[in-house]
Amino acid sequence: MVQTFKKSDYIHTLDWLIAYFPNAFSKKTKEIKPLKIGILDDIYAFHNCLKYPEVSKDDIKMAIKHYSNSHSYLVCQQEHVARIDLDGNEVDVVTPEQAKYALQRYTQKHAVKEQKPLTNN
Fold it and tell me: CA 70, CA 110: separation in Å to the nearest integer?
C-alpha cells in the first residue's frame, strides 16, 4: 500500500519540527538556514527517545525532503554560509560544490515549472 504525503501532513510535521527545534526550522523565508549534513539522523535519534511521537519517521523524512527542496532553502545554500544543527549552532559551511548543486536543483525545478503547458480548466 502506497502512503501519500499531503500538504496537510507536511504542515503538521513541519510544525512538529519547529516546536521541538525552533532554532533549526522555520516557516519564515528569511529565517531558513542550511541544515547540517546528516540532520535527519539526529532527528531520528530524538524521535526514538519519545514515548509517544506525534509524527512518524516516514513523515519526518518526507517533510525534510520537501523543506530542503523549497525555494527558500535552495536559495539559502550559498557558498561559505553556515550550516546549523538542531540547536541552531553553526557546525559546518556550505561548500562551493554544495552551493553549485543547490543552484542546479533550483534551476531545474523552475525550468520544469516553466515548461508545463497552461490549461484553462
Answer: 11
Buried b (16+ CB within 10 A) or exposed e, 73-99: bbebbeeeeebbbbeeeebeebeeebb
Q: Average pLDDT of each block of 10 consecutive residues along the chain (121 residues)?
A: 78 98 97 98 98 96 96 96 98 98 91 56 43
The pTM (predicted TM-score) of the whole model is 0.85
According to DSSP, residue 29 is labeled G
pLDDT at residue 80 in the model: 97
User: What DSSP character marks residue 35?
Assistant: B
pLDDT value at residue 3: 65
Choose among 29, 39, 87: nearest CA to 61. 39
- Please, what are the domains in the chain? 7-115 (1.10.1710.10)
C-beta of residue 94 within 8 angstroms of C-beta of residue 81: yes
Closest CA to 60 of 35, 88, 90: 35
